[in-house]
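Lecture 7 notes: from sequence to structure.

We start with a single chain of 344 residues. Read the sequence below before looking at the structure.
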Amino acid sequence: MALDFGIFDHVDRGDLALTEFYENRLKLAEGYDQAGFRTYHCAEHHSTPLGMSPSPSVYLSALAQRTKKLRFGPLVYTLALYHPLRLAEEICMLDQMSRGRFDLGVGKGISPIEVGYYGADPTKTEKIFGEAMAVIMQALTQKSVTFKGEFFDFKDVPMELSPYQQPHPPLWYGVVSPDSAARAAAQKMNIIANVPAPGFAAMSDAYRKAYEAKHGHAPMARMGINRYMVLAETEEKALEVARPAYRRWHESFMMLWRRHGISPTNVNYPPEIDGQLADGRALATTPAKALEILRKQMAESGANYLVCRFAFGNMALGDSQRSLELFQRHVMPGLRESVAVAAE
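Now the structure, written as tokens:
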């Protein structure tokens, strides 16, 4: 397995009108495609400027038409907000129309506020997730669905659609702890986390051990770390772009939490990007320095997949494109040459 690179995007709103905002994101997707990134992962959020792709399937269907090789998928579909049979049909459509470029990220949803707006009980989302996942996997791999649980009850429902990729598209999960990494390993899910390298080392170690114990061989999956990535000819220029853009992103991230007077769960994002620069979750620097930092992080973390965030907050399209171009020219080749990844 060669070292691969991915993209994560909250699709968070800046200052532009939505028509221009979406067009800029699609232009960036074309750039990711041409640069050789493997997968574009987009978030799902509701009732907040943090997420302008509240329906990831709609957004990704447009992205599929603007790209040729780039894989894509949600990170994640919030399963408590979907009818699982309908979502399975959407997954099949996206996978068929893109000729097998769809990657399926699933989760419970990080925000109890957002699922509460939709009438879902936040205390039950874990159980809903488990049942919905079971239904979806049956729908993707069988000709009919029969299931009886606390939340869903189906008897011999025909499935006329099937995915292009057999038996189903690759599965992804956002992990927040070694325990969640181990649970993902049991289901052969690829994983991504936005944590410092030492924290991910514990997760990747737990993943490998759980995978080998469950499946009897070393994992053939991607274990990715997610990094804000702002590159420029000088560190000063990179910071000039990164700091205000991150402030806007953080404002969007915190909006609902502040409105409801509660703290975010399972995450800790400082109000200034300097805090994430300090612990390695963000880079705002020159390509040469980025390569040096990332070589160390990949070795320390045990990751075999690097996920970049080139667009966030109110960052201008040109600034995102410059970071992408510098990363493609100077960082990707160096990492591919120097980072050892286990053979598939």
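The longest helix spans residues 235-260. Keep this in mind for problem set 3.
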